[in-house]
Write a structure and sequence with these properties.
Length: about 350
């Protein structure tokens, strides 16, 4: 079975690579001249236990102090619905003082309180939905729970909405990074070459490597074990799909749409998830020749083999955050939502 799975994955990758080469050969040439590039980050709340308390601000300070800015590039920071307005204001001032752009998406408690949990795709009545969740295996139940609270997650986090906002305010190219990613100088130089060099592709897939030794100056080798980051040219027709909430294919839905092979191809297909939209940019991507670093987010969750622990911590953080927000905003369906999430 393992051998068959490996062979199937190899054949799928070979097919996608053939289609990618054909799509790039038939595509238009890139724009003449040196492109402007926006290095954009989405910086959200620390969600315990997935993130250590204060980690987002510590990583932000490291980026502001130590990450270079190549000529012709600018930086944009999206402060994504910080629950503490005073902390968001302080972070915005630090970003502007460093000479960079910032957009603050405020958290709206009233909008969150109006967001409803949806159990109807599980069962016609909430009690039956809770009972059905209890019969599912842990992985399927977690995905169903995330889909049930997708409206609350959009109001509390809205990650893909924030990513698309960054693209709307970017340059010729926008490199959309997770908030804790850091780009060494050598990586930035390589990415500039990748964007400007032939053949032109509107999508550049950038590998991400978790920082393991604290050295921010040594460029990481472009390994593909982790979920990559993405840069999109302004001509790209791809966007992050806001129908997918944080924690449930929020980034990999885009990878599937663009025909980028990866472990997400083997993930279970849930019937309640929306179908992928077709895109003219399918297979029109290049793989970057350099990687970015992922700064620490929580103690014990950054090692290469900690992916299952990161998943469990993320799910626990989402549940704890929504239960807390339900309470402080007096959400009318708080009791039912807690029952669905506590299973």
């Amino acid at each position: 079975m393992v051998a068959w799975t490996s062979l199937r994955r190899h054949l799928r990758h070979a097919l996608h690579e053939s289609l990618r080469r054909r799509a790039l050969a038939m595509g238009p040439e890139g724009a003449v001249g040196t492109p402007t590039v926006t290095l954009a980050r989405i910086v959200g709340n620390d969600l315990s236990p997935r993130h250590a308390e204060g980690q987002a601000r510590r990583n932000l300070d490291v980026i502001l102090a130590k990450e270079p800015v190549p000529e012709g590039w600018d930086k944009l920071f999206i402060l994504n619905r910080w629950f503490d307005p005073a902390a968001a204001g302080d972070a915005a001032r630090a970003i502007r003082a460093a000479g960079h752009r910032v957009i603050d998406i405020p958290f709206d408690p009233a909008a969150y309180a109006k967001a409803k949990t949806d159990w109807h795709f599980l069962a016609p009545e909430p009690e039956c939905a809770v009972a059905r969740l209890a019969r599912l295996d842990r992985a399927r139940a977690d995905r169903a729970r995330l889909w049930a609270v997708r409206a609350k997650l959009a109001a509390a986090i809205g990650l893909n909405e924030a990513r698309n906002l960054a693209l709307a305010h970017g340059g010729d190219w926008t490199l959309v990074l997770d908030g804790g990613c850091f780009a060494p100088e050598a990586s930035l130089a390589a990415l500039r070459h990748d964007m400007a060099g032939p053949p032109f592709a509107p999508c550049l897939v950038v590998p991400m490597v978790r920082l393991d030794d604290g050295d921010l100056t040594r460029p990481p080798l472009p390994a593909w074990r982790e979920e990559p980051q993405i840069a999109l040219h302004r001509s790209a027709r791809l966007r992050f799909d806001p129908r997918f909430p944080y924690g449930l294919r929020d980034k990999t839905a885009l990878f599937t749409a663009m025909g980028l092979p990866g472990p997400w191809d083997d993930w279970a297909r849930d019937r309640f998830l929306p179908a992928q939209e077709p895109t003219p940019d399918r297979h029109r991507y290049k793989r970057a020749s350099a990687a970015v670093l992922r700064l620490p987010s929580a103690v014990g969750l950054e090692s290469a083999g900690a992916q299952p622990s990161r998943h469990r911590a993320r799910m626990a953080a989402i549940c704890a955050t929504l239960i807390h927000l339900d309470r402080v905003t007096a959400a009318p369906d708080a009791a039912l939502t807690r029952r669905l999430l506590d299973g």
